[in-house]
Specification:
Length: about 350
């Protein structure tokens, strides 16, 4: 089969590799769509994962073969996959911290080499422990919609970490695909969403997704970003301040701004700060005296799968509007380049083999 193999930093090659062989408790899935995810982009561009690997973990496709002991699935079913599935038994899982579970950290889907998702290949093997993460796609929905379940799950999980009441005011900084999902999910829950971004096209979509107010921030002039976001936030939240802020951009400056903008007892959730060792100064009295929470959220929550599927497949969160570009498998490198440096009209980028 054809696969896009990561051979080192910024080195992706279209190669011919064996179709994965499956065991009695496994599935073979023919990939139809795979989303390009920022976490993979970072690994590919910075070479932080040891090669060779086949990346791509937001995968949907058709089951073409089932292991002899598999009863729950059959060939021909259209499915969305989750590459991380928790054991639901360990100490971390009992604390509902699935992303810290040792089984969860293993990757249960592969197209060969060290398992890394495999969605940038024609076929993937679903390992036994990843089977509970397989979700059927209804006939009316597309593979692209199926491929969005995993990223939507990560956003819903984060939203549930916020202690909000209906009518609260929440800043969502950054209206990329992830920020837009936050905007939509928060609006569906009755929040006043203040959405910021650099691109007017993204702010337009944010309004259509339910943002109460949008503000364009200038970059790289950070001061004006801080000042304009602050004045807009004041306007939106009055003297009380924001109830919460979601920082969906990897900017320390925005985190500090957000901590200043939330009210006492409010929350700042960081979602895009995945680079280790990047330290920043924070006024800790804001956390201690003002009781502001600085929290993070990473990866998906297995228990939310059904709720996520319902949101996406009912189109209350219409992810079709987020998918702006589809590339064929042999142009995966171009897909990743576009997702890494978005254009004014690009949001979610897919590698599509349908
Ligand atoms: Zn992802
Ligand atoms: Zn566990």
């Amino acid at each position: 089969m054809r696969a896009v193999v990561y051979r080192g930093a910024n080195d992706l090659r279209l190669e011919t590799v064996p179709v994965p062989r499956i065991g009695p408790h496994e599935l073979l899935v023919k990939v139809a769509a795979c989303g390009v995810c920022p976490t993979d982009i970072k690994k590919i561009q910075h070479g932080t994962a040891a090669p060779p690997r086949i990346f791509g973990h937001e995968t949907a496709g058709v089951i073409v073969r089932t292991g002899s002991r598999v009863r729950k699935f059959k060939a021909g079913e259209r499915v969305a996959l989750h590459h991380h599935v928790p054991c639901q038994e360990c100490h971390a899982c009992r604390h509902h911290a699935f992303a810290q579970c040792e089984q969860y950290k293993r990757t249960g889907i592969t197209a060969g080499f060290e398992p890394a998702g495999g969605g940038y290949a024609e076929f993937v093997r679903v390992m036994p422990f990843a089977l509970p993460g397989v979700v059927r796609i209804p006939t009316r929905n597309s593979f692209l919609e199926g491929a969005m379940l995993e990223p939507v799950n990560t956003v819903l999980k984060a939203v549930k970490r916020l202690a909000l009441l209906r009518g609260d005011t929440v800043l969502v900084a950054g209206q990329g695909p992830i920020g837009l999902m936050f905007t939509r999910l928060l609006a569906l829950r009755g929040m006043n969403v203040l959405a910021t971004d650099r691109m007017p096209s993204r702010l337009k979509l944010a309004r259509e997704f339910g943002a109460t107010e949008t503000i364009q921030v200038r970059s790289p002039a950070r001061q004006s970003k801080a000042a304009s976001a602050q004045s807009a936030a004041r306007k939106a939240a009055g003297v009380r301040g924001l109830d919460a802020a979601v920082v969906a951009v990897p900017s320390d400056e925005v985190v500090r701004d957000a901590l200043g903008l939330v009210r006492g007892g409010g929350q700042v959730l960081i979602f895009a700060h995945t680079r280790r060792g990047a330290e920043t100064a924070v006024d800790l009295a804001g956390i201690c005296v003002d009781e502001k929470d600085l929290i993070g959220s990473y990866s998906s929550d297995f228990l939310l799968q059904a709720e996520v599927a319902s949101l996406v497949f009912s189109r209350r969160l219409d992810v079709r509007r987020l998918v702006t570009h589809e590339f064929p498998l042999d142009q995966t490198a171009a897909a990743i380049a576009l997702a890494a440096k978005p254009s004014t009209d690009s949001l979610k980028v897919m590698v599509s083999q349908g």
